[in-house]
Request: fold
Amino acid sequence: MKKYFAILMTTILCMICFVNCTPSESVSQAAVASTKEIEDAILEETRVALQAATQEALSIQRTQEFEIGQTQTAQALSVAQIQKNCTPGGTYVDEEGDTDIEHIDILKVETDLENETLTCVIYLEDIPSEITVNRTNIEKNVLEYSWAVYVDVDNNTATGVNWGFLGADYVMSIMKFAFGEEEKTGPIDILAQTDIWKFEDDSMAYYNKLDVSIDYDMNTITFVGDIPGITNDSILYFYALDYHETDTLCEYEK
Reply:
């Protein structure tokens, strides 16, 4: 760029000197035309060089942004992989593609706790506008779909459920059981149950209705529910199921 700028400035100075020091009547039209062609050629070369430099800078910037993004994602995944016990108020990231079924592939969960109201935003790879339930290839009386947040309120395995997610006292869930009814298609939150359940030993009892909202553009399911006794030290476990396929986030380690 400096080379082209120097040539351009030299040419302009020569033109000024040529015009001022030579009687105007002696300047031939050919000389003026020749000088104009040189000037235009230099300007064009300068424009091309500037455009090339700009494109190169943009390319470098895009590469740097991509590398930064990759590093941040890797760091987030590393944190999620070593995180054993997830608690309210945190954000947790899961590996993309660890299941082939996109509507149960958990990517991230954002959580918030205000008093005893727990909010969990679950990001999935994709959420279809409709699902099919009571599929003919599904056994009767089995859990066909589930998106759930298990809550161990007191972080104590001696209380709550004594099977599965050991120690969980409550579960906030969207669930659909296959009861052998006629196959049908519709939105998740219309066809499935959206409830909060309470565990006591080997039993599971209805506790309250769960507030659920689905954003099909953002591919998120938001759970909002009141969990008695929950604190910032309570343990959360995230789970999604489509028949025999599952995805989980946050290991349940005691």
Remarks:
- The first helix runs from residue 2 to 21.
- The chain has two domains: 2-76, 85-249.
- Residues 1-27, 57-82 have pLDDT under 50 and may be disordered.
